[in-house]
TrEMBL record:
Signal peptide: none annotated. This is Transcription factor. It comes from Thlaspi arvense. Keywords: DNA-binding, Nucleus, Transcription, Transcription regulation. InterPro entries: AIB/MYC-like, bHLH-TF_ACT-like_plant, bHLH_dom. GO terms for molecular function: DNA-binding transcription factor activity; protein dimerization activity; transcription cis-regulatory region binding. It is found in: Nucleus.
Length: 108
């Protein structure tokens, strides 16, 4: 399923599909789950421009104690996962997601 199809011609369909797949590679998605003072964070984005380093720096700046982190790469997609403990400030899921989006930004 390609959302934006310019023409029904095979060549145009293929071009639109390639553009759509490339846009998915550039998109950053953040998922946050809060349980008490612990948070589980997952960020999916392209692997260029050291997204793992940006993610770890953001966790440090937010004074989040890292209990576990995983940075697997599948093709050109990095799936950054971390389990952290909130130390000095409590964040809701939406707050933590917003601040990570701001600090990590587009990581491609």
């Amino acid at each position: 399923m390609v959302p934006d199809i310019s023409k029904m011609d095979k060549a145009f369909l293929l071009g639109d599909a390639i553009s759509y797949i490339n846009s998915l590679k550039l998109k950053m998605e953040i998922d946050v789950k809060i349980i008490g003072w612990d948070a589980m964070i997952q960020i999916q984005c392209g692997k260029r421009n050291h997204p793992g380093a940006k993610f770890m720096e953001a966790l440090k700046e937010l004074d989040l104690e890292v209990n576990h982190v995983s940075l697997p790469i599948v093709n050109d997609l990095m799936i950054q996962q971390a389990t952290v403990k909130m130390e000095s400030q409590f964040f809701t899921q939406d707050q933590l997601k917003a601040v990570l989006m701001e600090r990590v930004g587009e990581c491609t």
